[in-house]
Design brief:
Number of strands: 0
Pfam families: PycTM
Number of domains: 1
Main location: membrane
Protein name: DUF5706 domain-containing protein
Strand content: under 5%
Oligomer: single chain
Distance between the termini: 70 Å
Helix content: over 70%
Subcellular location: Cell membrane
InterPro entries: PycTM_dom
Length: 148
C-alpha cells in the first residue's frame, strides 16, 4: 500500500473516531438539558392548569421522553463486533488468534464500521433535536394558553 493510502486511512480512522466522540458529547449535553426540562415540568404538573395548557404540556413531555430515548440509544455501546476489525471481535479471540489477525491491515474495515456507527449516532441526534425543538414549541403554546 502506498504511503499516501496509509496516511489517508490513518486520517479517516482518526476523523471517524473523533466524530463518534462528538456525538457522545452532544448527546450527553442534550440528555442533561432534557432531564432538567422534564424535572421542571414535573414540578408544574399539579398547578391547576387549563385543559389546553395540560394537553400541550403533555405532548411536550411525550416529545421530550422520546427524545431522551433517542439520546440514550446514541450513547448506548455497540458491542456486536462481527466485523473482524473491532475490539468486541478481538475480545472473543485467544492470544494466538489476535496475533494472527494483526498481520492484516484492518483500517479500511474499521473506517467502514466506525462510519456506520457515526452515521447512526448522528441520525439519532438529529431526531432527538427535532423532538426537543417540537417540545419547546409545544411548551410555548402551553405558556400562551396558561397566560390567557
Amino acid at each position: 500500500m502506498s504511503s499516501r493510502a496509509d496516511a489517508n486511512l490513518d486520517t479517516a480512522l482518526s476523523t471517524v473516531t473523533e466524530e463518534i466522540g462528538r456525538t457522545n458529547t452532544k448527546a450527553s449535553i442534550l440528555l442533561a438539558f432534557t432531564g432538567a426540562v422534564l424535572a421542571g415540568l414535573a414540578s408544574l404538573a399539579d398547578d391547576g392548569l387549563s385543559l389546553p395548557t395540560r394537553v400541550f404540556g403533555s405532548l411536550a413531555v411525550l416529545a421530550l421522553g422520546v427524545a431522551a430515548v433517542f439520546l440514550l440509544l446514541v450513547v448506548r455501546p455497540r458491542l456486536g463486533g462481527t466485523d473482524r476489525a473491532s475490539f468486541p471481535y478481538w475480545a472473543r479471540l485467544n492470544e494466538d488468534e489476535i496475533r494472527a489477525s494483526m498481520n492484516s491491515d484492518t483500517r479500511a474495515a474499521q473506517v467502514k464500521v466506525l462510519s456506520r456507527i457515526a452515521v447512526w449516532k448522528y441520525i439519532g441526534l438529529r431526531r432527538a433535536v427535532d423532538l426537543i425543538l417540537t417540545a419547546l414549541a409545544l411548551l410555548d403554546l402551553a405558556a400562551i394558553c396558561a397566560a390567557l
